[in-house]
Write a structure and sequence with these properties.
Alpha-Beta Plaits; 2 domains; 3 helices; transmembrane; membrane
Length: 101
């Protein structure tokens, strides 16, 4: 009787571990991205709308975009500060930046 119970418990434990492994693989193991971004130019969902030479200029234009209700991120890459916005905000941001002095 004891051997059957121990065998049943071992099999049940094995089934639980295999089930847990499959659930974790399904939840966290499907990274379908292609080649990793080694250049640092991939900003995910954000789109670049302007490149400025100084942090002060980038801050002024970023404040102007924020005042208009556009979410903006400023990133330093290479020799310039980039203004990044979400794709839905690109037309409004470009229109607002086009009118900037």
């Amino acid at each position: 009787m004891g051997a059957v119970t121990a065998l049943t418990q071992t099999l049940l434990l094995l089934v639980v571990f295999v089930g847990l492994a499959l659930v974790l693989r399904w939840a966290f193991g499907n990274d379908r991205r292609g080649v990793p971004d080694l250049t640092g130019d991939d900003f995910g969902l954000l789109v670049e709308v302007a490149v400025l030479p100084t942090a002060e200029a980038a801050d002024v234009l970023a404040k102007r975009l924020r005042d208009a209700g556009i979410r903006v991120t400023v990133v330093l890459r290479g020799a310039g500060h980039r203004l990044l916005v979400f794709p839905a905000d690109v037309p409004d941001a470009k229109l607002l930046l086009k009118g900037s002095p």
